[in-house]
Amino acid sequence: MRAIAGGPRKWQNRAYLTGFCLGFALLAFTVLPVGEWFHAKGSMNTGHGKLACAACHKNAPGSFRQQIQANLRHALGRREGPAPFFGRLPVGNADCMACHERPNDRHPVYRFLEPRFSQAREKLRPHQCVSCHAEHQGRRVTLAETGYCVNCHKDTRLKKDPIDVSHADLIAGKQWDSCLGCHDFHGNHIMQTEKSVDKRTPTEKIRAYFDGGPSPYGTTLHYKAKQDGQDG
Fold first, then answer.
1. DSSP letters for 85-124
2. Which entry of 28, 46, 78, 82 is 20 to 30 Å from 143 by CA?
């Protein structure tokens, strides 16, 4: 019987080397920027498609090895909470504000910290950007409902109401889905507000806008978001 060239030890070493190279290549692929999509939770939301992970996720403390160790300790019940994987921290308000903060925002997050908005904070958490704009869901606005204005405006009264059906009547009729038909929440679109309730933007178009569709409020903006926190 003819012996295999190099013997079983040589083939065993080749198998080890091949496994090591494949493992190293896979690890490099998941850690290097080219493999970012591999460990992203989902599709980027509307307008964020060209952003790199580092544009929103700051570097987490510790080395990659230490983060793996911390998560293993958490899995074994020897650490209270998990550590960030892949060296990035979760996104917070400050990360969003680096690109989107502007002086004329109608609903800036800091306003919702006032005591009178405690009920809204409990139900809607509007003081957290990700409550309405959770990332990696491939949409613009991830909040499911469109009638959320009720949480703060159910006692609204206007001395000189400019529309043909008064706000008081709309509130009495609980027509909260009609609010966004005339009002852009952050007030960033330069638009002419309708004075007839019947001419407001239908809720279906608002929902399509939430899903990433064209803006029913027009395309001219008061403010253009910065790119990666830089002026743009």
1. STTBPPP-HHHHHHHH--TT-SS-GGGGGSGGGHHHHHHT
2. 82
Which residue type, as a one-letter code, is found at position 11? W
> Which DSSP string do the residues of 1-28 spell out, in sequence order?
-PPPTTHHHHHHHHHHHHHHHHHHHHHH
Q: Tens-digit pLDDT profile for the chain (232 aa)?
A: 555 556 777 888 888 888 888 887 777 666 666 566 666 778 889 999 888 888 888 888 888 788 888 888 988 998 888 777 667 788 899 999 999 999 999 999 999 999 999 999 999 999 999 999 999 999 999 998 999 999 999 999 898 899 999 999 999 999 999 999 999 999 999 998 889 999 999 999 999 999 999 999 999 999 999 876 554 3
Q: Rounded CA gap, 219 and 213, in Å?
A: 12
Report pTM.
Answer: 0.76
Contacts of 128 (CB under 8 A, 6+ apart): 93, 109
